[in-house]
Amino acid sequence: MSNVVKRLLTFFIGAPLIFALVLVKPGYHFPLQIVILLVSFISLNEYHKMASTKVKLFPKWIFVCLGLLIPACSYLFFFIGLSQEILLWLYTIIVIIFMAIECFSANEFSTSLEKIAISSLGIFYVGYMITFVQRLCSFENNSMVIILFLAFVFLCDSAAWFFGILFGKNNRGFIKASPNKSIAGFVGGILSDIALAVLLKFLLAKYLPADIWRYMILAFGTACAAIVGDLIESVIKRSCNTKDSGRVIPGRGGMIDCIDSIVVAAPVFYIIYYFLIFA
């Protein structure tokens, strides 16, 4: 089975399944929250394996447990009424823990800076940023908000791939991080998201009450962030001399390969939505 077929099957099966999970609202979208925790667990393991090719990191169980603590606490805070901003404090404490472990356990310190920095980046990348997907549960009509976010990310990724195949033959190679990506793909992904925002505004005006230009800005910002998310994961893999982050998803590679756009786009979507539509 070709990678193209695997990719299409993954999209047409995986995307509807995720949208269905979002519609299950009891327990602050409990099924979706469990999926997020599982995704975080797998991604933290993948990141540790990749980054360990650069420098000897802290033991995997410490790294994974500390990283998983952030999305787990994010879900817990919904129930006990604590602000999600406390997660930034938690992340700060985790970085300090890494510093303390290195101070008291290392026998030599030639790679201490890289060890602490790479570990802290991993916790932030696949532990902290994914909590912005969870924070979407705090908005009114949260199911629609989460579906809107995922639709923007999925469409941008798929449209960029599709337009890249059709029109990207002569405009690839401009981005050294991912030479196979094309300008046509980037433009196609962004314009497709803006078109989706306009279409949904007309079809679902009852659920999207803000002015249309606000949703167009939201789509533009989310698409740009999704593209950066895809590229930065390519940078990380190239830095680690790794082709894929893992072998979890057919046609896509590892879990990080699947969520790279989501984890970077989620904070951007949340911030724009909060200040431009929710406030």
Secondary structure blueprint with pairings:
Elements: H1 3-22, H2 26-51, H3 60-80, H4 86-105, H5 112-128, H6 131-135, H7 142-167, H8 183-203, H9 212-239, H10 255-278
Written description of the protein model:
With 279 residues, the protein is mainly α. Helix content is 75%, strand content 0%. The chain has ten helices and no strands. Helix 7 runs antiparallel to helix 8. The longest helix has 28 residues, at 212-239. It is globular and about 65 Å long. The mean pLDDT is 92.
SSE topology string: HHHHHHHHHH
Number of discrete helical segments: 10
Structural class: mainly alpha
Q: Can you summarize the main beta sheet?
A: none
What portion of the residues fall into strands of 2 or more residues?
A: under 5%
Query: Which residues form runs of ≥5 with pLDDT under 50?
Result: none
What proportion of the residues is helical, as a percent range? over 70%
Question: What is Rg?
Answer: 19 Å
Q: How many strand units?
A: 0
What is the rounded distance between the termini?
Answer: 48 Å
The geometry reads as: globular
> Quick check: average pLDDT?
92
